């Protein structure tokens, strides 16, 4: 690989440099985008395909991922305060180091194969998650191993 291919990629729409807060990304295929360390507060990603996308370190507080495909996405070290994951598919996503202390609605989301710290998992389960993911058919509580 060339020296240039080893450099970290810049956030797609310049979100690492400029604010992408409140932008509507809903219903889009965003699999070729990168939002590393971007400011995406209250952004709307509902029903978007973000499979494998890197959002590492982004501020996603208040963002809406309702019905989004986040399969194998990297949301590690993101601020997920108030972030909505209703009916989202997070199967295999990376969430290590993310601020998940006060995450928003998670009903209907699938967390299969997502490694979540035990204390965060307890907080997610205390939300008494309901529903089953429409795409995978997996119940939210079961995918989080809630008792």
Mean pLDDT: 90
Summed up, the helix count is 2
- Note poorly predicted spans: 1-11
For the report, how would you describe the main beta sheet?
none
Beta content = under 5%
Shape: globular
Amino-to-carboxy terminus distance? 47 Å
Q: How many E-type strands?
A: 0
> If you compute it from the alpha carbons, what radius of gyration comes out, rounded to the nearest whole angstrom?
15 Å
Helix content: under 10%
Query: What would you call the structural class?
Result: little secondary structure
Give the SSE string. Answer: HH
Describe the structure.
The protein is mostly loops and 147 residues long. It is 9% helix and 0% strand. It contains 2 helices and no strands. It has helices at 118-126, 140-143. The model is unreliable at 1-11 (pLDDT under 50).
């Amino acid at each position: 690989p060339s020296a240039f291919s080893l450099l970290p990629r810049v956030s797609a729409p310049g979100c690492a440099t400029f604010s992408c807060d409140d932008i509507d990304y809903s219903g889009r295929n965003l699999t070729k985008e990168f939002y590393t360390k971007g400011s995406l507060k209250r952004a709307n990603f509902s029903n978007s395909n973000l499979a494998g996308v890197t959002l590492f370190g982004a501020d996603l507080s208040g963002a809406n991922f309702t019905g989004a495909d986040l399969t194998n996405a990297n949301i590690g070290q993101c601020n997920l305060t108030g972030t909505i994951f209703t009916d989202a598919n997070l199967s295999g996503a990376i969430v290590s180091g993310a601020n998940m202390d006060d995450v928003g609605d998670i009903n209907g989301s699938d967390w299969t194969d997502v490694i979540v710290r035990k204390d965060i998992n307890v907080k997610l389960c205390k939300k008494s998650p309901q529903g089953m993911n429409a795409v995978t058919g997996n119940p939210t509580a079961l995918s989080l191993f809630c008792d």
